[in-house]
Specification:
CATH topology of the largest domain: Alpha-Beta Plaits
Distance between the termini: 63 Å
Structural class: alpha/beta
Largest sheet: 6 strands, mixed
Radius of gyration: 38 Å
Strand content: 15-25%
CATH superfamily of the largest domain: Reverse transcriptase/Diguanylate cyclase domain
Number of domains: 4
CATH architecture of the largest domain: 2-Layer Sandwich
Length: 501
Amino acid sequence: MVATLRELVASSALAPLLRYVSRPEQDPVVLGVSLIEDLGHLERVREGSIVLLTRSVSMEVSGYRFDMALRAARSRNAAAVVLGAADVASVTSMTTAIAHRSGTAILGMRSDADLAVLALAIGRQLAGDAGAALHCVHTAVRVIEAHPPDGAIDSLLQGTSAALGVPISIQPSKPAGQTARPVVVDDRVEAWVTTPPQDGDLAMGVEVVLQAVGASVATAMAHQRREQALPTQSRQEILTDLLSAAPKGRERAVLRARSAGLPIDAWHVVVLVDFESLADPPAGEGLASYEARMRVGTAMLRGARAAGGTWHEARSGEAFLLVNTSREDPGPAGASRVARVVEDVLLPLRTSVHGSIIRCGVGMAAAGPSGLLASAAEARAAAVTARASQQANTAVTFDNVGLRRALVDWYASDTAREAATSVLAPLAEMGVRGERMIQTLHVYLDERCSLTRSAQRLNLHRNAVSYRIKRAFELLDVDQDSPDDLLLLQLACRARELAQI
């Protein structure tokens, strides 16, 4: 282990045995320990050594001969010369000045210290032997155990570094040439705790401490994220309630959002993100699918916020919404700018959910609570267009939707939404069978009431389509021969498709 003289003298093993008599301006690096029985042998000691004088040699410290010996020690870059406790008083002021200029310290042994014990202790500290390493590791682990889960990470690293005697830092990626252990939060490596490489037994001890530090840092990071997530989750729930509220309950939802500090009176661009394969997972994989959606949604929100601006998240069935908010009107280019941010965020996430197709729609910028709802409806329409045109893993803006704009504008009104919902209610209340009839009716009306073309699109027998259509009109309160009723049905089917994403 490479250490400076001050670090060694201040260590828990050597502090009870040594004290400074003369401290040089520079703190020398200690490379070894030497024991000599003649002052003349100072010319041959290993460079960078702490030189221990035997009792007979230590008694010669007074006089010119010792001053010359210090000059010889300087030629070998000796870190320090250690005297017996009884001989410290014989050191003159001139000798101290020579030692100070030479960069070689003069140390004195404590009165109860033993030379053999001192030599062994210095050797152990330099070699980092099992005893010294175990002591440092034990102290460092106790510091880690005493650190509170919600304590500052910097404080943890500083305390552990001081106890171990080795600097510990945290890095965003694994550095080359360092001893490092990962910080794993929610099964992901978020950072690395690192130290300079060590030798001997201390190197193994450092690995143990780094493992413990990494676990403690991970706990602290997870705690910080939970604390930050609480207000985020609350705002998410409030925003989700507002976007899904019925017209009669919308005013209360708006007041609740304002009370929570959501800037709903500003300008909004809504992004809808839908996972085509994860929305209907195979049996037994529902939880994994849900966790995958939540993980990607959280990552997208974090990435969007990192790009700048104010972002919030909400839910829409199996999909989720990202809402970009600004105090000023971002203009027609606002949607395109948000789309670019979303695509940049999506790029590294495309491989995170294997086998999933991500459909992404972006609404236009609009102001206030009504504008928020309108942008959300436009985002749904853009996502439907992305699905219909097979555009995956890219952000489709509403201004590329074309004729769907008129439909979305119509559906955005409360009256139209109530009409579209009520006209299909008898089928929607039937569950899966009703959904099949609505899908068949939708295709049938789009194909201008042609059973043949509808059967081809649905890959069904013509008689099956005929049966479903007949049964649907029996349940619905509409006139099959009325053009107005058929138009209302067609608009309701299309509007319902926008609302289901």
